[in-house]
Amino acid sequence: MRDYELTSATLAAALADPALESMNFLNEIASRYPGAISFASGRPTEEFFDVAEIHRYIDIYCEYLRRERGYDDAMVRRELFQYGRTKGLIHELIARHLDRDEGIRADPEALVVTVGCQEAMFITLRALRATDRDVLLAVSPVYVGLTGAARLVDLPIWPVRSGKDGIDFDHLAAQIAKARAQGRRARACYLMPDFANPSGTSLTIGQRRELLEVAAEQDILLLEDNPYGLFHDGEHMPTLKALDRGRSVIYLGSLAKTGFPGLRVGYVLADQRVLGRGLLADELSKIKSMVTVNTSAVAQAVAGGKLLRHGCSLRAANHRETATYLRNMRSLLAGLEDRFTGSAVTWNRPCGGFFAVVTTPFPADDAALEHSAHEHGVLWMPMRHFCTENAGDRQLRLACSQLSAEQIETGVDRFAAFVTSYGPTACS
Amino acid sequence: MRDYELTSATLAAALADPALESMNFLNEIASRYPGAISFASGRPTEEFFDVAEIHRYIDIYCEYLRRERGYDDAMVRRELFQYGRTKGLIHELIARHLDRDEGIRADPEALVVTVGCQEAMFITLRALRATDRDVLLAVSPVYVGLTGAARLVDLPIWPVRSGKDGIDFDHLAAQIAKARAQGRRARACYLMPDFANPSGTSLTIGQRRELLEVAAEQDILLLEDNPYGLFHDGEHMPTLKALDRGRSVIYLGSLAKTGFPGLRVGYVLADQRVLGRGLLADELSKIKSMVTVNTSAVAQAVAGGKLLRHGCSLRAANHRETATYLRNMRSLLAGLEDRFTGSAVTWNRPCGGFFAVVTTPFPADDAALEHSAHEHGVLWMPMRHFCTENAGDRQLRLACSQLSAEQIETGVDRFAAFVTSYGPTACS
Predict the structure, then answer these.
(1) Phi-psi category of B200—alpha, beta or left, where left has phi over 0 and alpha has psi -120 to 50?
(2) Which of residues 260-279 of B touch A (CB under 8 A)?
(3) pLDDT tens digits, residue range B73-116?
(4) Which helix (H) or strand (E) element contains residue B67?
């Protein structure tokens, strides 16, 4: 019998989109150069991983169900083993965390616990994509996970330039006006206001207030994604959601860096009202029920245990990790200063998060990365992968979250050697 | 500031689809009648749930990583905590299970571990939906999770009648021909060949072979969903995938009933070649990376531990559960026989699985269910919820998986009282 064979043309067109390849690209090049020092991957530090903690968190969560929720043993077992509430099990604990760490007063019923923040983005975009006239604005450069999710639900992304300050309000207004002029509708604007991936930049308090005003005036939603906000040096800026007085903000939450990635637990806070129905969270929950049914109860129990262990403060839970990230960022920035001050190479100076951006005098493209990996043993991420328009050709992202101080020192040496040797060649 | 408010018209049209409401409907009515005996829910038995097992499975999995895979402690920690392989971590263990329990020789690289079988369905349908001329065939009545997922990716479902034998081949051929005549393309036919949800029926070996021949001739894929196949009385029919010689079958696997629902671990076996690319599994993996990134490593570790604990045989792992399900099915069928033999009520006689179907002399609709719940304290599922066409009005699904022998006995009494009292009224 002849084998059934498929062709690309008979599969979803989104599969040919570069956004769906970018994550694989990063993994692939990392696997080909296992000896390279990687500034490419924004993974969390592995310094404090401890399998015993998983057991402990499960026990803490079960104890909480018994003591605080009054569950008997059969109910505890059911909670961990059986199908559960579509909107999730640990919504109240997440609401406590949001109150404690972010000053966000969240109605637990407006939370949907998701399979990582990726699912939160996906179901939100799926819900907001009503017709082919809808478009999504996103501050560019854009996290590839957002681009890929938007592609899967056939929602075009229109970039909003970040300029040098984090967001170009004139361009935002222009894009909204352009959509209107075309009979289209800008549903929402996606951004990471704190230590953005990939740009590393944060909005000022003034920009946050201005953005909320624009959203209200223009009748668009803001999709606030905040995976890195807690890794700061003490000057914590309020999130958009904490400042939101008109329910303009859908808050996308991740526990991948503040919990751990292996959980795949995230959430979305969607407290908007849907006329004649209820909360937007309930509509998102309906979509979730057809994508993943619900989020693993075991994973939620571990996440819940970690929250409970630290009084629902993920800031407190991550004090060691935060110290590591801040030390690493300082080392990276000092390393760049040592080697590139006075040169044609420039970079930004984030005061937290995982990422910094370097501007090079030559195209920092995949070919340059291949050269850097092969000749100099150092990896980074071409900014081009995060750009939906023709931009970012001479920029690259350096992530320092997963490295040791020594690796950063050696890595910056290698990076400097790469830039010095590659630059003139590429520019000649 | 005025609150941002949404309207249904500005959200995905799929949200208004009855399929997305059906699962909620079931949960909602169950919560309103907590004292009712529920034949509505096809949840697995809770008899053998044991939180200590979760701890044990994690330990077994870590031990396997050390002994069989040669991982050091840092690698074990990384496996459970860090971002992982998009296609999953326990693919080799699942391949062993498929070999051992189903006689399916699966290339582990052709497996994608998913967030339950629901995500497996979702990403498969998303991949197969290339243009608006694509349609999906599905043996009707259809599992609502399939209908909902298809709706979310804008893939119309054309029902194929099951007739009294499980599948009406003439109707299948007619639907394929009709699609072709309309310039459309039937991509695949979805079905559960073993103890289907909701019909309880299984295909004979002859029907399986015929279906594979039709698929090859007509150039369509078969989507085989098999959550209940292992719960049989000893006469195990080969799955379509075990008989598949032309890679016509995409096999959708669930561990919700054979592992436990709280894991949310399932998988898809997609060993089809995509011209110039690779395996279909790799294309599905790209979609998954934009829906959930990867499946919780913690949940996979628990699932992997359960597989390892039983030599990768889920049949062996479930010998107690299977005994419970078979006992329950026999009690249910005997109960129906006692009360309805010679009446206008008829039913089928599955020899395994979770479900039986009763045909009533009156419309077994939501109003009848409300009456049954309110007046008689017994719940069941109107078949209408599983039908994409105008059918099933006088049928209902009885699930017996989660009940005790006593509950079934009492439940059938209540059900008989409901039918006796409601039938004449409704028919008058």
Answers:
(1) left
(2) 260-265, 272-277
(3) 999 999 999 999 999 999 999 999 999 999 999 999 999 999 99
(4) helix B51-67
